[in-house]
Design a protein that fits this description.
The chain is built from 36 helices and 31 strands. The protein is an alpha/beta fold and about 1050 residues long. Among the domains are: about 240 residues, no CATH class; about 180 residues, HAD superfamily/HAD-like (Rossmann fold, 3-Layer(aba) Sandwich), CATH 3.40.50; about 140 residues, no CATH class. The longest helix has about 40 residues. It catalyses: ATP + H2O + phospholipidSide 1 = ADP + phosphate + phospholipidSide 2. It is found in: Golgi apparatus, trans-Golgi network membrane; Membrane.
């Protein structure tokens, strides 16, 4: 639930989201699309009105459009309309919440619970069945299996059809039930967490990592008038209410009012983002009491989370298309058979029987083998010692890891550790690095030992009261004095608060918690809304000046000698994206070339009169109703002039282990990397450089902030002229561009070697993923570690979560969970490659196994006067797809074309996978021709060589068929594994052993004769030898890329 803090003072330094308004444009802009031709961009930027109009072609919605896919679009639209009608969402409205008077609330609001389950107890079975039978393969076999209940159409035993189909559906339902139960458990755990009423301490930290991806702690401001109440119970005795805006997606803004009516005059206070605690944030330190304003589905976190979708891999979609082609070929063949009969008698029944006879063209074992293969791939991934801790949470899409073109990654916690390290201090004439910090420490000790801290006054307290003093003549300060001033300024200008944990074993009430705390140096930690500030304060501690205490009005510093100096806080100017400074801190870009986050530190001495004048203007600006932010910024800026420059600091954001080589590996593999982050533009650009997402020699085009269509038009024109440069854009500008120039923007962005989107909300991240899918048709992968990455991960074709500092929400919602970003290299290059290659080979071989026996059936029927009589019946058909060929065929899941080391050494091999050449209509046509050739040879050979009894045809052809399949598996394998050899001999042994028991189908006396052996051998050699010769010639004269590396 989202609530407004009342009793505790929560102060925060949140980075506000840039707001914008889309202004109404003149009618000529509505009629003028952005031109993407070079001629259009040759015009002057300011003369965009003169750009020629683009030709707008309209799709012709005729019969051809309907047949080629329009029917599917119409059906989808109708279904969406029906669902939206049945599940019409309640309109979101602003609300008034009365303190302690729920009876005054007229509106009914959602339950304060979240639900991530896909189904309920009533929709589970129909929902799962729908997901299964919307696939053509499963729907086809359902129809075929049902046809066997009709006596006139029955051509085999019921179990030969229903057992495989039932097995596939049962396995799927069990898997979905387990996943659904896990989602239920996670929801139950989340919904059981409640906010408790706590006592007042005056300040409170919150963690927002699961909402916006930022791991630092934030301090926020509570309503002022409730802080003055004598007791907590008085909250329910006052007559007051909160007016809150309607629920919306933006997590960085809030507008509302707090009104107390029982005071004279009534008190009105404006409320903003600084007064709120959203759901999914954690009270990390201190206590808080609040009033709930949003619940359940109306909270910011739920509004920014998309519903999980059922993901289907590209390989499954390709196989689904191939099965449709096979079905069409099967129907055509059946019609030909009936036509050759002359359409005599009950030809329609004969047509259906032929369809059933050739139904093995589309084997149900295809689905079984692929699902079992996916389970094996998942097991191999989780057992890989080189990527420990990897978890496969969605076992249906491992092949997607080998088809990725776009990788969309979060920044904080994914590419970086979000741990800042102080690297450099620059005083203008001298620079100190990590290896010379001991010199700074010596200067600090020397300064305080000699009493150079007299600027703080003769006492241990620095007060705000200062009288006007005549300006002293400027003299050149010593290095020691300059270092002392710089370090003291860094130690004072920040929003950092030292936190001390309670002593272990003390379980007192909250009121006495402070007495139980250990204030030793070892027990102190620092918390702030920016990890940069924490790094600066930790550095000042390391050189001798330590921040030991801070509250809302003062802070205390401890010198190397143990003296405590108290400084009173008069005003704090929070950091904003517009001013790019906090207090007297501004941004500088010199050391940014080294990938450091730089700050300029300066100071200014004020007299009492100067401060009083500033305070009066500042208070008046804060009370303004219109343009409050602009007026406050103007007053603060008037103070930040003629300042004394003290130093420059450089802080480095530590990258995750091996981020740079991993990104280089992915780029060489042809994967385009986009960084989507909620952080500021400057920080995102800095990390893009330091991680080598953008090379140092590469130009960066920063998209200027735009508010309307005209500005977006000009900026896109400017961007179009740039070539081979990285692209950086903020979330608000992105939204304007997508509103008016969606297609043009995506087209331009996809041409960039790297793209950085900063200040992105969780919803925008998911929107970018969907745009890439729609406009490029390529497979996307999203990787992140925070709750704000869940929508992006669920929207991508393949979602990868990292277990990190931001919790497990992303890893639990992802398809694959890894421990470190560097593991993605092996996950894609090795396991993604193997999964796709193996499934492609397995799928095509299973289809070949069905095609060859269907070809034999067609030859048999045509020879025997086009009779719709099955060639093989009963156990032979079941055994053919199971114990006789299953083990060798399934052993293809162990095959590999290159070793893992080679795949990692030559990531360029990954590019071939994205082209889909391992499974295409071309490769399918080759397997189809092989099947027709081998089926024809086996059947015609058996008919030519059979003896007087028909049973000899069955024994000769079926034995040759089994041997041919075993040899074809051997022909397909590229790297032998001992289990493959075992599977070959096991299947052959099972077949030989079963001959003695299948007297119904085989003449045992004939099988034992040399005649049977030489006839079977001849047929088998003729069917397989030419293919072995062709494979040898192809390997010799046109070898694949991987064979060149392994030779």
């Amino acid at each position: 639930m989202d609530f407004m803090c009342l009793s505790d003072i929560l102060h925060a330094r949140c980075n506000p989201c840039d707001r914008y308004q889309v202004e109404d444009e003149s009618s000529h802009l509505d009629e003028m699309p952005l031109m993407m031709s070079e001629e259009g961009f040759e015009n002057d930027e300011s003369d965009y009105h003169t750009l020629p109009r683009a030709r707008v072609t309209q799709k012709k919605q005729g019969l051809g459009w309907f047949v080629l896919g329009g029917w599917k679009l119409l059906c989808t639209s109708c279904c969406d309309w029906l669902v939206n009608t049945c599940r019409r969402k309640k309109e979101l409205k602003a609300r008034t919440v009365w303190l302690g008077c729920p009876e005054k609330c007229e509106e009914k609001y959602p339950r304060n619970a979240i639900k991530n389950q896909k189904y309920n107890i009533f929709t589970f079975v129909p929902g799962v069945l729908y997901q299964q039978f919307k696939l053509f393969l499963n729907l086809y076999f359902l129809v075929v299996s049902c046809s066997q209940f009709v006596p006139a159409l029955k051509i085999g035993y019921l179990y030969t059809y229903w057992a495989p189909l039932g097995f596939v559906v049962a396995v799927t339902m069990v898997r979905e039930a387990v996943d659904e139960y896990r989602r239920y458990q996670r929801d139950k755990e989340m919904n059981s967490q409640m906010y408790s009423k706590l006592t007042v301490r005056g300040s409170c930290f919150i963690r927002t990592d699961q909402l916006d991806g930022e791991t630092d702690w934030k301090l926020k401001i509570a309503v002022v008038c409730t802080q003055r109440l004598p007791a907590l119970g008085d909250l329910f005795s006052i007559n007051s209410y909160v007016y809150a805006q309607k629920p919306q997606l933006d997590i960085h803004s809030f507008e509302g009012n707090f009104t107390r009516e029982d005071s004279d005059p009534p008190i009105h206070e404006s409320l903003s983002i600084e007064n709120t605690l959203w759901a999914s944030t954690i009270v990390a330190s201190g206590t808080v009491i609040g009033v709930v304003i949003y619940t359940g589905k109306e909270t910011r976190s739920v509004l920014n989370t998309s519903n999980p979708k059922n993901k289907m891999g590209l390989l499954d979609l390709e196989l689904n298309s191939l099965t449709k082609a096979l079905f069409a070929a099967m129907v055509v063949l059946s019609v030909v058979m009936v036509a050759l009969q002359g359409f005599v008698g009950p030809w329609f029944r004969n047509l259906f029987r032929f369809v059933l006879l050739f139904s093995y063209v589309i084997p149900i074992s295809l689905r079984v083998n692929l699902d079992m293969g996916k389970a094996v791939y998942g097991w191999m991934i989780m057992k890989d010692e080189n990527i420990p801790g990897t978890v496969v949470r969605t076992s249906t899409i491992p092949e997607e890891l080998g088809r990725l073109v776009y990788l969309l990654t979060d920044k904080t916690g994914t590419l970086t550790q979000n741990e800042m390290v102080f690297k450099r201090l620059h005083l203008g004439t001298v620079s100190y690095g990590t290896d010379t910090m001991d010199e700074i420490q010596s200067h600090i000790i020397q300064s305080y030992a000699q009493g150079t801290s007299q600027s703080n006054g003769s006492s241990n307290t620095s007060t705000p009261s200062r009288k006007s003093q005549p300006a002293a003549p400027k003299v050149r300060k010593s290095v020691s004095s300059r270092i002392h001033e710089a370090v003291k300024a860094i130690a004072l200008c920040h929003n950092v608060t030292p936190v001390y944990e309670s002593r272990a074993g003390v379980n007192g009430e909250t009121e006495y918690a402070e007495a139980d705390q250990d204030f030793s140096d070892e027990n102190r930690t620092y918390q702030a809304s920016s990890p940069d500030e924490v790094a600066l304060v930790q550095w000042t501690e390391s050189v001798g000046l330590t921040l030991v205490n801070r509250d809302l009005t003062s802070m205390q510093l401890k010198t190397p000698g143990g003296q405590i100096f108290t400084f009173y806080i008069l005003q704090i100017f929070p950091f904003t994206s517009e001013s790019k400074r906090m207090g007297i801190i501004v941004r500088c870009g010199n050391m940014a070339r080294e990938g450091l986050r730089t700050l300029v530190v300066a100071k200014k001495s004020l007299s009492e009169d100067q401060y009083q004048d500033f305070e009066s203007r500042y208070s008046q600006a804060k009370l303004s109703i219109h343009d409050r932010a602009l007026k406050v910024a103007a007053v603060v800026e008037s103070l930040e002039r003629e300042m004394e420059l003290l130093c420059l600091t450089g802080v480095e954001d530590q990258l995750q282990a091996d981020v740079r080589p991993t990104l280089e590996l992915l780029r060489n593999a042809g994967i385009k990397i986009w960084m989507l982050t909620g952080d500021k533009l400057e920080t995102a650009t800095c990390i893009a450089k330091s991680s080598h997402l953008v090379s140092r020699s590469q130009d960066i085009h920063i998209f200027k902030p735009v508010l309307n269509r005209g500005e977006a038009h000009l900026e896109l024109n400017a961007f179009r002229r740039k070539h081979d440069c990285a692209f950086v854009i903020s979330g608000d500008s992105l939204e304007v561009c997508l509103k008016y120039y969606e297609h043009e923007f995506v087209e331009l962005a996809c041409q960039c070697p790297a793209v950085v989107c900063c200040r992105c909300s969780p919803t925008q991240k998911a929107q970018i993923v969907k745009l890439l899918q729609q406009h490029t048709g390529k497979r996307t992968c999203a990787i992140g570690d925070g709750g704000n990455d869940v929508s992006m991960i669920q929207a991508a074709d393949c979602g990868i979560g990292i277990e990190g500092k931001e919790g497990k929400q992303a890893s639990l919602a992802a398809d694959f969970s890894i421990k470190q970003f560097k593991h993605i290299g092996r996950l894609l290059m090795v396991h993604g490659r193997n999964s796709y290659k193996r499934s492609a080979a397995l799928g095509q071989f299973v289809m070949h196994r069905g095609l060859i026996i269907s070809t034999m059936q067609a030859v048999f029927s045509s020879v025997f006067y086009f009779a719709s009589v099955p060639l093989y019946q009963g156990f032979l058909m079941v055994g053919y797809a199971t114990i006789y060929t299953m083990f060798p065929v399934f052993s293809l899941v162990l095959d590999q074309d290159v070793k893992p080391e080679t795949a990692l050494l030559y990531p360029e091999l990954y590019k071939d996978l994205t082209k889909g050449r391992s499974l295409s209509f071309k490769t399918f046509l080759i397997w189809f021709l092989i099947s027709v050739y081998q089926g024809g040879i086996l059947m015609y050979g058996a008919l030519l060589l059979f003896e007087s009894e028909f049973v000899h045809v069955v024994s000769i052809s079926f034995t040759a068929l089994i041997l041919t399949e075993l040899l074809m598996v051997a022909l397909t394998i590229r790297t032998w594994h001992w289990l493959m050899v075992f599977g070959e001999f096991l299947s052959l042994g099972c077949y030989v052993a079963s001959l003695a028991f299948l007297n119904e189908y085989f003449d045992v006396a004939f099988i034992a004769t040399p005649t049977f052996l030489w006839k079977v051998s001849v047929i088998t050699v003729v069917s397989c030898l030419p293919l072995y010769i062709l494979k040898y010639l192809r390997r010799k004269f046109s070898p694949p890329n991987y064979s060149k590396l392994t030779s």
